[in-house]
């Protein structure tokens, strides 16, 4: 049976192309709308949107004051998602995120428990300064990111669909932070580094944001449409050359897999989730850039946001002033040869 040509396949391909072209138009509109409010930072906007389009969560890393919060609220508006924000602090408890059971008493004096949902019940959740909360509270959020439901007193409550967490984190040198454990970092599809704006963008920020009128973004799509695009991305075909490039990249980043530089500098490397993230995000990036199929370039461009939080350097490499980014850049340039 397996060898018979499938007449539906050609039809499916046509349907997928038609769908993809509609999605291209939607994504172009989303980009345009976000750009009205967020100046410069194209890479940041792109990677954050790629995480959402791929159905995952993103970790935004950068010093305070680089408009990370503004980006998240803007994306909530533009994608038509119901958004909440939690400011993480050392005294935040898991119940402050998940919700609590409260005791109700009716007219007859009968008592019963009622669950009051916490802010995690949103389609787009901004977890601000996630590394300021205690590990217990961090893991309450990270568990819901993984399982898409919350269990209170043995009772599971489904989180809304779609459900995306965009967490922000200050660079770790700062006082009063609890670094996220490796296994929990792995739950973020992408790490997005938010750098200081370029001069031209910073000038525009100064001029546009200190006047009376503040530009607002408008909704472009809604939750239903976002979920359709996410499903389409999972249906996009990926060529063998791109799959091979993903495997080569991920495997070359692991010590003990025949790459001398990695063996010397990397303490632990990315697991299988890194490859899954590259498969999804490469397709999303193709659409984001107006193409119908992912290319090896997509894999190279995504190497850093996908791998950076999934590997760590040896003490010796860190002592030499090397960064994970340097190592990833080296691996990518080896692959280009």
Automatic annotation (TrEMBL):
It is an enzyme of class 3 (hydrolase). SUPFAM superfamilies: P-loop containing nucleoside triphosphate hydrolases. Pfam families: AAA_3, AAA_lid_2. Keywords: ATP-binding, Hydrolase, Nucleotide-binding. Belongs to the MoxR family. InterPro entries: ATPase_AAA-3, CbbQ/NirQ/NorQ/GpvN, ChlI/MoxR_AAA_lid, P-loop_NTPase. The keyword Hydrolase applies. Its EC number is 3.6.3.-. Residues 263-328 form the ChlI/MoxR AAA lid domain. GO terms for molecular function: ATP binding; ATP hydrolysis activity. The keyword RNA-binding does not apply. This is MoxR-like ATPase. Residues 57-190 form the ATPase AAA-3 domain.
């Amino acid at each position: 049976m397996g060898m018979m040509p499938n007449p539906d396949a050609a039809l499916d391909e046509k349907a997928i192309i038609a769908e993809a072209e509609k999605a291209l138009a939607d994504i172009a509109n989303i980009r345009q709308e976000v750009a009205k409010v967020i100046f410069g930072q194209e890479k940041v906007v792109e990677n954050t949107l790629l995480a959402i389009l791929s159905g995952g969560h993103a970790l935004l890393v950068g010093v305070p004051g680089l408009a990370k919060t503004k980006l998240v609220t803007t994306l909530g508006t533009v994608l038509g998602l119901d958004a909440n924000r939690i400011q993480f602090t050392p005294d935040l408890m898991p119940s402050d995120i998940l919700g609590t059971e409260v005791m109700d008493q009716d007219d007859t004096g009968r008592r019963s428990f009622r669950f009051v949902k916490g802010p995690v019940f949103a389609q787009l959740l901004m977890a601000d300064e996630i590394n300021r909360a205690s590990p217990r509270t961090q893991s309450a959020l990270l568990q819901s990111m993984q399982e898409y439901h919350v269990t209170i007193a043995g009772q599971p409550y489904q989180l809304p669909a779609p459900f995306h967490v965009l967490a922000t984190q200050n660079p770790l040198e700062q006082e009063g932070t609890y670094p996220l454990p490796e296994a929990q970092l792995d739950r973020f599809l992408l790490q997005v580094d938010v750098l200081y704006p370029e001069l031209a963008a910073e000038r525009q920020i100064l001029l546009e944001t200190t006047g009376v009128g503040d530009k607002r973004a408008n909704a472009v799509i809604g939750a239903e449409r976002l979920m359709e695009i996410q499903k389409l991305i999972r249906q996009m075909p990926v060529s063998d050359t791109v799959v091979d490039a993903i495997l080569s990249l991920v495997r070359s980043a692991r010590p003990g897999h025949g790459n001398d530089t990695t063996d010397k500098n990397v303490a632990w490397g990315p697991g299988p989730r890194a490859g899954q993230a590259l498969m999804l995000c490469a397709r999303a990036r193709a659409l984001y850039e107006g193409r119908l199929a992912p290319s090896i370039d997509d894999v190279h461009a995504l190497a850093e946001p996908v791998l950076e939080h999934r590997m760590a350097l040896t003490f010796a490499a860190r002592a030499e002033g090397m960064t994970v980014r340097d190592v990833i850049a080296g691996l990518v340039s080896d692959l280009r040869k």
